[in-house]
Amino acid sequence: MLYNSTLFEIHTISEKDAWSICDFVSANEDRLKRYFPLTLAQNLTPDLAQLFVAKKVKEFNAKKEFLFTLKPNNSKKIIGLIYLKALNWNTKQGEFAYAIDYNFEGKGMISKAIKFLSQYAFQEFKLETLQIIVHHTNIASIKVAENCKFTWIKTLEKEHTPPGENPLDMELYEFYKP
């Protein structure tokens, strides 16, 4: 466990998480299909989730991408996922992407987790710039960026293409190592 609050814990991805991730994506399929289509597709069955988790553990250990899980205190149930991805070790930059179970949204958990993981990324991984890329309609995610002192930088044209949709413009927020 990396972090423990009164409401939740943050863990690094573990081989033991496959069933819980499968349950998480199944319960939150509608929330994930637009912005996390690959995570959704790769975890629709327990067997797929096992392959996904094995891959993510390897990527974590190789410092290619970091996946963190949010769990209620003293529980194995996953209620959120936070990626630190798009890592550029030359520019010391990474991007956060996150999703939380619909039963736990609006409680400030993602904001607390991003605040902690930002400092963790600066200290442990020596990153200097962290990004959050969000669609302008995702007000909850914009609030996370703002609550965590990320600054709006610019609109990225045609940055993300959801399945079956036209490319969307996305908003770029950044936070720099103090």
Question: Can you tell me about this structure?
Answer:
It is a single chain. With 178 residues, this protein is of the alpha+beta class. It has a single domain, classed as 3-Layer(aba) Sandwich (Aminopeptidase). 34% of the residues lie in helices and 31% in strands. It contains 6 helices and 8 strands, in the order ββααααβββαβαββ. The protein has helices spanning 18-27, 29-32, 37-41, 46-61, 109-124, 139-147, and strands spanning 3-4, 8-12, 66-72, 80-88, 93-100, 129-134, 151-160, 168-176. Strands 1-2-3-4-5-6-8-7 form an 8-stranded mixed sheet, with helices on both faces. Strand 5 (93-100), helix 5 and strand 6 (129-134) form a beta-alpha-beta unit. Helix 1 crosses helix 4 (46-61). It is globular and about 40 Å long. The protein starts with a strand and ends with a strand. The mean pLDDT is 97.
SSE inventory with pairings:
Blueprint: E1 3-4, E2 8-12, H1 18-27, H2 29-32, H3 37-41, H4 46-61, E3 66-72, E4 80-88, E5 93-100, H5 109-124, E6 129-134, H6 139-147, E7 151-160, E8 168-176
Parallel strand pairs: 5-6
Antiparallel strand pairs: 1-2, 2-3, 3-4, 4-5, 6-8, 7-8
